[in-house]
Predict the structure.
Amino acid sequence: RAVVWKQGKTSRRRFAELRRLGVSRDLAAQTVGSCHGAWRLAKSPALYFALSTRYFPTLGLVTLHPVAPAA
């Protein structure tokens, strides 16, 4: 999440991307305006919602956490 956040570069782009991913206007503005760094914001509610574990396979990334076989 921190790496994706840092790729946004500008506050305007980060805000637009959070809104596109379904984050409310207030929460997106609060997150973009935060003075905390990318690693700390990676655990924020906005990024957890917008960049859930379902988001990363859409980027073509593989999971490092193996899925347990069904019993």
Observations:
- The two ends are 31 Å apart (CA to CA).
- The mean pLDDT is 88.
- DSSP finds six helices and no strands in the chain.
- The first helix runs from residue 2 to 7.
